[in-house]
Amino acid sequence: MFTAATVNTFIPKDTAISFDRVTFAYKQGEEVFRDANFAIPKGGFFFLNGASGSGKSSLLKLIYNANKYYLGSLKVMGQEMKTIKERQLPDFRRKIGIVFQEFHLFDHLSTVDNVALPLTLNGEDLRRAREKAAELLSWIGLGSFLHKMPTILSGGQRQRVAMARAIVNDPEIILADEPTGHVDDANAMKIMALFQSLHGKGKTLILSTHNRTIMETMGYPQLTIANGTVSLKKEDTRFSVSGIERSHVNPVDLSPERESNISRPYAGEPFYTQAPKVNLFKEVENV
Questions:
Q1: What's the rounded Cα separation, in Å, for the pair 218 and 15?
Q2: Of 36, 145, 195, 266, which sees the most CB atoms within 10 A?
Q3: The 3-state secondary structure of 203-246, one letter per residue
Q4: Confidence (pTM)
Q5: 42-60+86-286 has CATH 3.40.50.20 classification
Q6: Taking CA 195 as the corner, what is the angle to CA 190 and CA 198, rounded to the nearest 5 degrees?
Q7: pLDDT tens-digit map of 75-90
């Protein structure tokens, strides 16, 4: 067991997110966690776990600046969250993709228009935005659902649409709050195949989950919130606290098959340090 303070001692040079003695409390005064010290390296994949009400969602909200009040220092991509200006927030948030447990899709918009929405809000031409959204939906196995409404999709399909919307702006960091909470284990692992593929493309991910099967199968480092503290647990001997390399945190590969008809940036298989042991993506259309 490594303590959070131990991690902070070895902050890698290329750091995506760093917590330095961060304490967060609700407005009512109830303390959620105290003196959180950890660093997430660029390109890292970390699970975030803890009991319901332990503060997992609160921690994620701090990272994307939905919770603004805390003690200590919190930096995301080098930017101190306390001092970020209102005019900087749109550009900042485009660099972070957020996947919510409850999907938050618009039922009156088609699947492709739900995914295209962040692009159009940023001023992208509607036709080009739909082309990008369609490309991304094809990559995640929903190319035949472009014009379907969210209400007719399964839970797993809606979650993948929510994922596509979160990454359509090509963010550097992806935060996912219980993204497999509404699907069974088999479908959850298919969704995790997509997250792992994004990790293989160099994205930084923090994924909140209660699913022990997923955490134990995939073997990524685990940040745990318990009794008001944040700690890091990693039993894999290949894991190095002082230099968290992607090869050390990718013990199980769930990479997707090559999609030769999709144009960049989501064409083909990403580079991995290990040969695939499990390939679930070929069945992802049935989630």
A1: 22
A2: 36
A3: CEEEEECCCHHHHHHHCCCEEEEECCEEEEECCCCCCCCCCCCH
A4: 0.77
A5: no
A6: 135
A7: 999 999 999 999 998 8
